[in-house]
Amino acid sequence: MGPILIIDDSDTDRFLIKKALLSEQTALELIELEEGFEAVKIIKERKPMATLLDIRMPGVDGFDVLRMIRRDPETSNHLVLMLSGSEEPSDMTLAREAGANGFLTKPATFGEYGGLAKAISKKVFGAS
Amino acid sequence: MPHRKYHSILDTHPDLICRYSPDFILSFVNRKFAQLFDSTAESFIGRNLFDVVQETQREKLQAKLARLSPDAPSVTIASDRKLSNGENIQLHWTIIALYNKAGKLEEYQSLGRDVTKENELNFALKERNQALETMQAEMRIVLDSMPCKVWYKDDKNTILKLNEVAAKSMGMDIDSVEGQNTYDLFGDSAKAYHDDDLRVINSGVPLIGHVERYTPNDGIAGWTQTDKIPFNHPVTGEKRILVVSTDITELKEQEALLKSINKNLDDFAALTSHDLQAPLRHISIFAELLNVEYTDKLDDEAKSYIKQIRDGVESMRALIKSFLKFMRASPHGIELDRVDLTSVLEHIAKRHKLELMTYGGTIKLPKEKIFIRGDSTLLNQVIGNLVENSIKYRDHDRPLEIAISATKKAGQWHISIADNGVGIDNSSAAHVFDLFGRAKPHSDREGSGVGLALCKRIITLHGGDITLTRDRVKGAEFVFSLNAAKPQE
C-alpha cells in the first residue's frame, strides 16, 4: 500500500485528517506538505496512491497545484481529491473543471471525520 | 376753369380732397369728402374750412397751417372724426400750400386718407410682435433653465437653437453658435455625432438614453446620456432633430464606486466564509476530542464548560451563515417568476404546525388566492423569518396568535403578518431592519439579528417595501408589498 500525500497549509487540518485516516487504516504512510510548489516533484519521487489537496492556501492555491499535476505527463493521471473548508458550490464546480477526481468538505465535527476517512479510503483503495 | 377737366378724377378718388383760399374759403371738395359729412360737394363751396373742422381740432389745424412757408409748403396732420353712424374713423391729412412766384400764398390743397384700417392692422401687428417676443423670451428662459444641454439642428447640421448649458459646454456663447454648422465649429470631430443624427433624422426613430463618453471644452472627460428626437418643422415640413443631453459623470462614478463596494463585499463574504469558519471548526472539533478522548479525566463541570464552548461556536457559525445569506441575496438582481404565494404561506404554516401546537398557538392564513411576481425561495425565507420571529417573540402570558392577511391595491399585494407577542417598542422600531439591529429588550432571545435586514433586502430586490407598523397596542405587525401577477400568465 503506497503512501497518501496531504497538502494543506493548516497544521490543525493535517493533524485531524491524519488522525482520522490512521484510525481507519493504521498502517497507512502519510506524506505532509504545507504548500504545493513541490507537489509534482514529490509525487514523482514518492509515488503516493493519492493526494489530498486543500483548495484555499496562501500563494499557490489548490487549483494551481492541481493544474501543475495535470500538466505533467508523468503525474497527469494521479488521483487527486480536493478538500475545502466550505461547501461553496463554486469551489465544487472549479474543482471538477480543474480535473479533480473528487471533492470533499472538511467536517465540522470529529465524528464526521470518520465518514471522511472512509470516503477517502474507498476512493483510494476501493475498500469501504 | 382749366382744373375742371381733372374734377371727375378727383371726384372719384378714394381719398378726401379739398381746396381752399388763403382765408380758408372752400372752393372745391370731392365726392368722398362730401360723403364723410353726409352732404353734397356743392354745399361746401364758399364755406369757411374752420366751420367744417370739428371744434376740438381747430387749434391744432391752425398751428400746423401757421408753419407753412414757401420753403416748407406741406404739413401732415392726424385727426379723427365720428361719423353719423357712430363709427369713429382716423384720417391722415396732407396739407399743401401753393405759392406764386413772388412767394405769395394763393391756395391750400388738402388730401385726407382714411387710415382707420391701416392703424388697426398696425396695432394688431404690434401686439402680435410683442406676443412673439414674449414667447421667444419665454422659450429662452425655459431652455436656459434646463440643467441639461438642449439644442436642435436641421438636416444640414446647422444648430438652429441651443441653451446656455449647451453653449457653455462648447466654450462659446449662444449667439456665436446659433445658425452655425457644427463642422465649422468643431471640424471633423463633428462627423461622429452628425452620422448618429442623420440616422435618427432619416429613420424617424428616436435614439433614447444613448450613453457615451464626452470631453467638453474644459477638457475633463465625462459621461453623457443623450436623447435624439426627430421632428418636422410645423410649416415647411423640413427635417429637424432635437437633442437633449445630460451629464451623468457623477452617476457613472457612483456606479463604479458601488461596483467596487459590491466587489469588496463579495470578497469580504468569501473571506468570512473560509477564514472565519476554519478556526471555528477547529475550536469545535478539539472541544469534541477533549470531551471524547478525555472523558474519564473530566468532571461534570469541565464537561459543561466544553459544552459552553461548543454552543458558542454553534451560535457563531449560525451568525456567519445568516450573514453570508444576507450578503449573497442576489446583489445583482433576481429573476422574477409568477409565484403562488398562497401555497408558500400554506407550506410555511404546515412547517410550523407542530411547534405552534406545543405553545397552543394558531396561525391564520388569508382566504384570497395570491399570485405575485417574485422568487419563491427568497420569499419563503422572508415569510419564514417573520413567522419564526412571531414564535420567538411570543408573549408567554397568552396563547400566540399569528394572523396573515392580504389586500390588493394599485397592482400590488400588501401582505400583513401580525402577532400578539411582546411587540417592538418605538425606540427599537427604527433599527429593526438594520444589519444586526435586533430590538434590545429581547436580546436575550436567540437570533443573529440578520433576519429582518435580509427580509428588507429581499423585498427591496423584488421592487417592494417592508414596514413595521408603529404604535400597536400589543404584538408586532410587519407589512410588505409585492407586485401582483396575473392569475393565468
Helix-strand layout with pairing:
The complex is a heterodimer of chains A (128) and B (489).
Chain A: E1 4-7, H1 11-24, E2 30-33, H2 39-46, E3 50-54, H3 62-71, E4 80-84, H4 89-98, E5 102-105, H5 110-125
Parallel strand pairs in A: 1-2, 1-3, 3-4, 4-5
Helix pairs in contact in A: 1-5
Chain B: H1 4-12, E1 16-20, E2 26-29, H2 31-36, H3 49-52, H4 55-67, E3 74-82, E4 88-99, E5 105-114, H5 116-145, E6 149-154, E7 159-162, H6 164-169, H7 174-177, H8 182-186, H9 190-203, E8 207-214, E9 222-232, E10 239-247, H10 249-293, H11 300-327, E11 337-340, H12 341-351, H13 353-359, E12 362-364, E13 371-374, H14 376-392, E14 401-409, E15 412-419, H15 426-429, H16 451-461, E16 466-468, E17 477-483
Parallel strand pairs in B: 12-14
Antiparallel strand pairs in B: 1-2, 1-5, 3-4, 4-5, 6-7, 6-10, 8-9, 9-10, 11-13, 14-15, 15-17, 16-17
Architecture overview:
The complex is a heterodimer of chains A (128) and B (489). The two termini of chain A are 16 Å apart. Chain A is α/β, with parallel strands linked by helices. Chain A has 5 helices and 5 strands. Chain A has one domain (4-91, 99-125): Rossmann fold (3-Layer(aba) Sandwich), CATH 3.40.50.2300. Chain A is globular, with a radius of gyration of 13 Å. In chain A, 45% of the residues lie in helices and 17% in strands. Chain B has helices at residues 4-12, 31-36, 49-52, 55-67, 116-145, 164-169, 174-177, 182-186, 190-203, 249-293, 300-327, 341-351, 353-359, 376-392, 426-429, 451-461, and strands at 16-20, 26-29, 74-82, 88-99, 105-114, 149-154, 159-162, 207-214, 222-232, 239-247, 337-340, 362-364, 371-374, 401-409, 412-419, 466-468, 477-483. Chain B has a 5-stranded antiparallel sheet with strand order 2-1-5-4-3, with helices on both faces. A 5-stranded antiparallel sheet of chain B has the order 7-6-10-9-8. In chain B, strands 12-14-15-17-16 form a 5-stranded mixed sheet. In chain B, a hairpin with an 8-residue loop joins strand 16 (466-468) and strand 17 (477-483). In chain B, helix 10 packs antiparallel against helix 11 and helix 12 (341-351) crosses helix 14. Chain B starts with a helix and ends in a 6-residue tail after the last strand. The interface between A and B is medium-sized, with 15 and 12 residues.
